[in-house]
Structure formats: structure tokens, C-alpha cells
Amino acid sequence: MRLHSLELSAFGPFANKETVDFDLLGAEGLFLLHGDTGAGKTTLLDAVAFALFGAVPGARADAKRLRCDYADPDTHTEVTLELTVQHHRLRITRSPEYERPKRRGGGTTKQNAKASLVWVGASPSGHRSEGVTRIDEVARTVERLLGMTKDQFFQVVLLPQGEFAKFLRSSTGEREDLLEKLFGTQHFERVEQWFKEQRRERRQALDNARAGSRELVARFAQAAGIEPPDEPDPAWVDGIMTTAEEADALAAAVAAQASARRERAEEALAEGRELASRVLRAQRAINGLNELAHQTTARAAWAEELAAAERAVPVVEAANALMGLERRADAADDVVKALADKATALGFADADAGLPRLREAAGGLREEAGGLAALVAEAEQQRVDRKRLVALGEQAEDVRARSAEVGARLAQMPARLTRAREDLTNATTARAMLDGLRKRRAELAAALADKANLPKAESALRMAEDVGRAAVDAHQAARDEVLRLRQARLDGMAAELAAGLVPGDPCPVCGGDEHPAPAFAVADRPTATDERAAQTVEQKALREREIAVSRVEKARTAVTTLVDRLAVWGDRDLAAAHAESEDAFESANGLASRFVGFERTVREAERAHDALRDESAKLEREIARLTTEAAELAQLVQTRSDKIERGRGDHPTVADRRHHLLATAAAVDALVEAHTTARTARERVREQGDALADTVSGAGFADFAEAHTSARPETVVAKLRERLAEAKEAEQQHRATLADPDLFGIDENEDVDLTPRIEAAREAREVAEDAVAAARAAASRVEQVGALGYRLRTAWQRLAPKEAEFAELDALTDVVNGRGQNSTKMSLRSYVLAARLEEVASAASLRLRRMSQGRYSFVHSEQAGRFGTRGGLGLDVLDDYSGQTRPAKTLSGGESFIASLALALGLADVVAAESGGGALLDTLFVDEGFGSLDAGTLDEVMGILDDLRDGGRVVGVVSHVDELRQRVPTKLNVVKARTGSTLRLTV
User: Fold this and answer.
1) 471 pLDDT exceeds 60?
2) What pTM does this model have?
3) What is the distance between the alpha carbons of residues 172 and 829, in angstroms, rounded to a whole number?
4) Which helix (H) or strand (E) holds 7?
5) 327 and 463 assigned to the same domain
6) Domains in the chain, number
7) How far apart are CA 320 and CA 312, in angstroms?
8) Would you say residue 201 lies in a domain?
9) Structural domain of residue 673, as residue ranges?
10) Which residue(s) pair with 195 in the sheet?
11) pLDDT tens figures, 585-607
């Protein structure tokens, strides 16, 4: 992966659009992003990460606040990154989700996140040539091309501020999580989980099988009627089954003997009961015949009474019919009288007339009522029209009132339209002036801030100049001390060389073996150590001098910049001008914000004016229509009124008169019908009287009184028949019983005692039932014990291989998960991660030894942690000075930085190799941490970073350390301004 360019707008502290040319920066392979703390150096790396993955590294990802607070509301937050991955050049553009001010009215609205990926040149195989625009699809494409996730990218390509050192100090669990994300060893965890799930399932199945066998043992013991032993076995089962079979055979023999005895007792009891029954039948038949012989006279009287009652039945029926006809005739006469009274009450004077006269009168009344039917309809319409006439008058008054109201409102509309149009014109003018007023306010606010910052900048310049002069003096004094010590060493060099002479060894000056007159050292002679210490002080003073001079130049530049900005304003009162511009802007902004409302008010007023004008014309037309319709209807009502008055006569309405005529005609018709019905009823009474006399004579009675005396109610007749039939049937049954051959030779006076036989049969039955129950229980026990014994032996046979299989799986699962016979106590996943960590430690040690001048190297530890923490992921540091291994947390700040950097680079090498090669390391960023290094260590670190450029790699260093500006030739300065940050590219 190689970056080419980065464009960001309203992102982080950068309020405007900024561009970074990585091709220009990375021409030398190493470049520096330099700037003060908080200027936005790390934001550039965040922009790269956001463009690729839609997220930023570290804790800043939790804030989810990427838009610049100082950006203009119309400036869109966007990041565009152009890069080459796997020989394919592409351009990625992303925008985050953020809240922006609404373009109309107050408040904010949500700007949705967007993303697009466009191929610069030919698209790769399997990808659409037009690119992708879905956020999730862009993320998947980037991860597929890079061959790593965002977590891997942040760990091996973009080493974020304060994050890459976390791996060095992390605990075993945290290190395990990170390594698992980087190396993708989740499938090993799935293997561990698979073994656990298999063991859990097999254990559950084994427990179920064990529980099933235990349940079978309990049921087997319960069926045998004994308590189960602690350790049941097949021999115990066979013994119980044999015992049950023997008990079953014995119980069956006892039951057979008892059953035979019961059968003999029951046969004797049945014979006794049969004899007693025949004796009882003979006694009942003889007693019944004797009782019937005493009822002979009574039965003759019953027969005579029944014959007379049967002959009187038709006479009674004829008499009842005659009385019914007489009652109906009397009722018909009463109806005639009532209807005649009703007709008279309705005003009919001829109610006593004959039937022809009544029929003629009814026809005349109906004809008169028919002539009034049409006039009834006209009377009803007359009532409706009068109500309509009143309603028309009320409607006309309402419409006139509404017309007057609309006219009054219409008269007010011209003034309302004029005011609304004036407000809209003022708002339009304010909108046109708003941009100019905003810029003027911003310029005056910036000038006020510059004016306020100028005294501080001048004071800072004076302080920097004082510090600079002191630093120059201190450096000059340190340099003079170095020169003095060097000259003193030169002056005493003979004595220094003489101090190292050894008798017999050659002189380093003349080469002679004899040293007859060596020089002697003077007191307080400076040594090489003194000179080196003085040189160190001088170098430190030189760095402080350079820093002080740089600060003076920076402070002077700041003062000059502020003075140049304020020069354009002259002696003008900036506070008053700013207040005036603020008031003007607020006033214009207030009017401009109401533009839409004023525009809507004008449209509404115009629509209201047109609507009122249309409504007024409509109401005038409605008044004319109602007036015309009311006049026409009044003329029609007056014409119809005279005809109706003549038609109603003495009645309130025409309908009432017609109803009275129809009611009278109906009453006369009913009276005619009643006269006819009464005449017919009297004729039938006479005919039924003659029929009654003939029926009495035909039944053999002298007169109706004799027939009436002989008559009996139906219940009495039925009772007489029933008594006679029962007596005859009883006599026949008793005689048939005595003629039965079964009763020949039976003495009806014989006494049969059944008590001894009943007691013997009961005792034999109880014994037999108990024996049969015992036999059934024994047979059931044999059946249950046999079935359960077979199932139990089968369950034991099936359980044995499951026990062996689970024991093997249990032991293997413990080994895979770092327990049991696993001597290292490391799980499969931890073992794989430990191997990866060992590779990382080996790769990181090569760089750490160089950075620490051969002092430190990493040591991979498999030792378990405290409180039973699993081992395999320990990482210590070997100190060659002491020969001891110690925890990485004991390193100093600078040592921790170089150790973390070496570890991060080693981790990057291993992950890159694991991901498919070094192409992923074409670009590498290291963010901060260099300020904790001394000069020598910084040289070694920069040498390592310089070596990373081999093969065309580009390394970006992010730091605010000024010394790096002299060490790295290509740099990007990030300058912090008042309302954001600006980029200045320096090559």
C-alpha cells in the first residue's frame, strides 16, 4: 500500500480545505509531520484511517466527533484519499455523520454519512468498473485489498499516538485479544469450543444413560419387592428372576385348588336356590286363584257398568256439540249489537236498517272518501311548502349577514397586502446584505483578538529574547570551558602518556623499551573524562541555545504577523466597530431568517383576497336566487289554500275528513258481516237439537236423562276395562304356572333352608379370589422382572463403550484447553498465539538490541501468571548489563518507547508476512514518543526507521520535537491558528 494524496475539509481542527501530497513528502522515503501540541498532526493520520475504514484509532473513536467546530456551516466535512494497493490505484471519499444548521429556520439537521470508491485506471478483476458507493461495500473492498482489518492496520501500518505501547504493557488477557485479532486465530478457539461442546453433549448423553440404568435398577428392585444393593450386577438380577419364577409356580397351584373348591360350593348353592324358587312359584299360583274366586260378583257388576257407559258416549258427544253451537250463536248476537253501537257513534243514522240498505250506505261512504284522496296529497304539499317558505326567508337573512361580513373583510385586504409586501422586500434586502455583514463581523472579531494577543506576544518575545541571551551566554561559557580543558590536556599530554608507560613495553611516542625520564603530572590535571563531560555540557547548552533562538524567531514572527494584521485598521476603535457590525448582522440575520415566513404571508394574503372576492360574488348570486324562489312559492301557497278549506268541511284537515268516511264505511261493512254470521249460527243450533234426539233413541235409552245417568268419565271407563283385563290375565297366568312340568311333584308347603349353602359358597369364593390375586401378582412380577432384567442387562452393555469413549474425549478436551495431562497448561489457541508471539519477540529483539546499543532484547515466557492465569503469552526483557530478565513494565520512559517501537515494528513484520508479504509495509506511520529519547538513542531509532525505507518504503514520523526537524529532511508543518489549523508543506 502506498499513499499518494490526502484532501480533508472541515475535519478535526482544520476548518478549510487542506491537501497533503504524500508523493512529494515520501520522495526521500522518510518525512516528518511537525507542529505544536494540539495543532492537528495526529488528525492527519486519523483522516487516513477514516478514509480507509470509516473509523479513527484509539480513544478518539469513542467521541464520534470528527467535524471541525470552526468550519463554515456551508462547508461539507469530507476526506479524500488516493492510494495504490496491489498495483491498483483508487480514490476513496468519505463523509461522517454530523449535525449541521438548517438552511431555513433555526435548529440543526442530520447530515448522513457517505462513502465512495473510484478506480483510477483499470478496475481489478471481480470489481465493478464504476466503483462502489455503499458504505459497507466500500469497507469490505478496502479490507479485501489490504488483506487486514482496521485493528491490524492500526497495529502494523499506522502506529497511533500512545496505542502501540499498549501491547508492551498489556496483561496476558489483553495481549491474547489483540494477537487473536491480528492473526485471526478464531478458528482455533472454535476448535476448543467444539471439544467443549462435544464433551458437554457426550457428558449429558452419558449422564442420561447412567440415570436410565439407575432408574431401571430401582424399577427392577421395586418390581421384585426388595431394596436395591449399592453395586448391582448381572448375578443379582439372575437370582431375583429365579426366585420370582418359583413363587409364580407355587401361587398358580394354590389358585387351581381353590378354584375347584369354589365351583363345587357354587353348584350346591345353585341346586338349593332352584328348589326354593319352584316351591315359591307353586305357592303364588294357588294363592292367586283363591283370591280371584272371591271377586266373581264384583267383576260382573264392573262389566255391566262398562257396557252402559260405552253406549252413552255418542249421546254425550252430541249434547256437548249442541251447547257449543248455542254459545257461538249468543256471541254472534252480541257482536251485532256492539257494531251497531259503533256505527251510530260514528254518525251513521240507519244502523237498524236491513242488510240491502246497509250495503248501499257503505258503498256511498267509500265513494265520497275516494274523491278526497287527491286533495289530501295537495294539503300535505301545502304544509311542506309553507315550511319551505319560512326556511327560504331565514336562509336569505343568513346569506345577507354573511355577505356583509365578507364585504367588511374584503375592505381590509388592501392594507394587509401592502404591509406583507413591504416586510418581504425588507427581508430580501437583509438576505442580500447578510454575507457581507458576516464577513465584516468576522474580520473585526479577528482584529480584536489580534489586538488582545499583541501585548502577550510582545511580552513573550521579550521573555524569549532574555532566555535566548542567557542560553547564548551559557553556551559560550560551556564552549570556553571545553577549550580550556582541551588546552590543559594538550599542555599535560606528556605526563598523561608517561602515566601509561610500563617497563619493558614500547613507548607510544618513540618506540623505545626504556623510559629513563618520564614526565610527572601536575596537580589537578584534567582528564579525558573531564573533557567528555564538558563536551556533553557544551552540546546540551548548544541544543538549549538553538531551541531558545528558534523560540525567539517564532515569537518575533508572531509579533510581526499581529502588527501587520492590525496596520490595516489604523487608529480605528475596533470594539465600537465590532459592536456596530454585530448589531447590524443580528438585525439583518433576524430579518433574513423571517424571509420564508414573509413570503408565505404574502402568498396567503393574496390567496385570501381572491377567495373573499369570489365568495362575495357567490353570496350576491345566492341572495337573488332565494328571493325569486320565495316569491314564486308564496303565490302557489295562496292559490292552493282556498281549495283545501272547502275540502276539509268540519274536520281539522282533509285527511281527517277522509279518514272518518273510510272508518264509517268499514264499521257498516262489519255490521253487515255480523248480521250474516248470527243468522247462520241460529240455523245450526236447530239442526243439532234434532240430531241429539235421534242419537238418544239409537243408543237404547228411554230419554236423554237416562243416557246422562249412565255416562261415565273416560278415566272411569278406562279403569273398569283395566280391572277386568287384569283379572282375566292373572287367572290365565296362575293356571299356566300350575300346569308347568317343572312344578310336578312339588309340595307347596315344603320349607327350603339355604343359609348353610350360602355360607359355604361365600367362604370358598373368598379363598379362591385371594389365591387368584396372589397368582396374578406372582405372574405379573415374573413378567415385570423378566422385561426389566432384560432391559437392565442391555443398558449395562450399551453403557460400557460410552463410558470408555467419554473418558477419552474428556482427557483430550482437557489437553486442548490447557488442563489435565497438558504439561504447559496452555490451550490450543494460546499455544498458536504463543508461537506467533515468539516470532514477534524474535523480530522485535533485532531492532531493540540496536536501539539500546545491545543492552536489551525480548524474551518470550511460557510461565503461568498469578492466580492461575494461563501461560504462553508472557513477554519480558533481558538486560545484558545485569544478565537478568525483568518485566517490561520496569523500563524507563525512553526505554519503554524504544521497546514499544521495536515490538510494534516486529509485530508489523510478522503480521505483514502472515497477510501475504511486505507490500503492505510500503507506507508506515509512527506517532509521537521521540521526546523521551536522548541523542544517542534517537540516532539509533532514526537509523532503524531509515532502514525501513529499503525496498521503496515510505516512513512518516509524527512529532513536535524540534531536533527531528534537523534530522528528517522532508517535513510537513502543521500550524495552529485561532479558528483551526492550517497546513504548510516544507521540503
Assistant:
1) yes
2) 0.40
3) 13
4) strand 2-11
5) no
6) 2
7) 13
8) no
9) 313-352+652-711
10) none
11) 888 888 888 888 888 888 888 88
